[in-house]
């Protein structure tokens, strides 16, 4: 019986990994080989699980390309779950106002465990844009300005435990080593907003501010991205004030829901 329970849990974990990986892809979908690589699941196993999910409507497969996409059943489930969890409609106007006021691309992200997931993107009027972040894109906490803003406002014990258990430098480079992140966490706590100085894609800067749950925990973040010269030192305080103002107002609105 224990072996059956363990095997069942492994299947659930693999299915969840495949669905999460699919949720981060661009609208054109992704191949079985790419999903297997990204999830660490053997290709035949990935194909078998995806085919079973397709039979139930949880994923779709494009006949012309063979690429997989999220299916209609997940959309239907999502509309039901949105009644309890979705705050994007409340956040949407703040994202739009930030994009309009700054000319940059503005975002709203949610914390999911040790990751952030981008829920909303609104491009501003400035013609050169960064495409590091898009709806569905996931980053570990501490990577990108939204994840850094959230990590900085976890309890010191929780932040230290996360840094001790997570090797971000292995995937994102030495600038994401624990000691480097501690310095950026301290700076974020000092100013109130996080800065990503082109640590993911050269020339693409970001700034973020945490949005808090009624219990006072960092549950979401508002952020801006753009080219380096648009985030010059003399402009950062202005962008930071805008982010903090909208994050504070959004926090208050969510508390009144």
Automatic annotation (TrEMBL):
PROSITE patterns: HTH_ICLR (PS51077), ICLR_ED (PS51078). Residues 9-72 form the HTH iclR-type domain. The keyword GTP-binding does not apply. Residues 73-256 form the IclR-ED domain. InterPro entries: GAF-like_dom_sf (IPR029016), HTH_MetabolicPath_Reg (IPR050707), Tscrpt_reg_IclR_C (IPR014757), Tscrpt_reg_IclR_N (IPR005471), WH-like_DNA-bd_sf (IPR036388), WH_DNA-bd_sf (IPR036390). Keywords: DNA-binding, Transcription, Transcription regulation. SMART domains: HTH_ICLR. This is IclR family transcriptional regulator. It comes from Leucobacter albus. The lineage of its organism: Bacteria, Bacillati, Actinomycetota, Actinomycetes, Micrococcales.
């Amino acid at each position: 019986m224990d072996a059956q329970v363990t095997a069942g849990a492994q299947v659930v974990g693999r299915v969840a990994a495949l669905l999460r990986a699919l949720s981060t892809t661009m609208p054109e979908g992704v191949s079985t080989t790419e999903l297997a690589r990204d999830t660490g699941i053997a290709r035949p196993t990935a194909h078998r699980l995806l085919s079973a999910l397709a039979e139930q409507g949880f994923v779709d497969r494009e006949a012309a390309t063979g690429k997989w996409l999220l299916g209609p059943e997940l959309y239907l489930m999502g509309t039901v779950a949105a009644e309890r969890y979705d705050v994007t409609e409340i956040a949407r106007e703040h994202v739009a106002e930030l994009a309009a006021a700054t000319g940059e691309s503005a975002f709203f992200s949610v914390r999911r465990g040790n990751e952030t997931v981008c829920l909303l993107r609104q491009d501003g009027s400035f013609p050169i844009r960064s495409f590091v972040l898009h709806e569905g894109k996931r980053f570990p906490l501490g990577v990108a300005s939204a994840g850094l803003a959230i990590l900085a406002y976890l309890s010191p014990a929780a932040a230290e435990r996360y840094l001790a258990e997570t090797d971000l430098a292995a995937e994102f480079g030495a600038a994401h080593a624990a000691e480097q992140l501690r310095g950026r966490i301290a700076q974020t706590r000092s100013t109130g907003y996080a800065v990503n100085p082109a640590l993911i894609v050269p020339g693409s800067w970001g700034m973020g501010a945490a949005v808090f749950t009624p219990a006072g925990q960092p549950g979401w973040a508002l952020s801006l991205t753009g080219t380096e010269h648009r985030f010059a030192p003399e402009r950062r305080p202005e962008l930071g004030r805008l982010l903090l103002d909208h994050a504070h107002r959004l926090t208050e609105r969510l508390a009144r829901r």
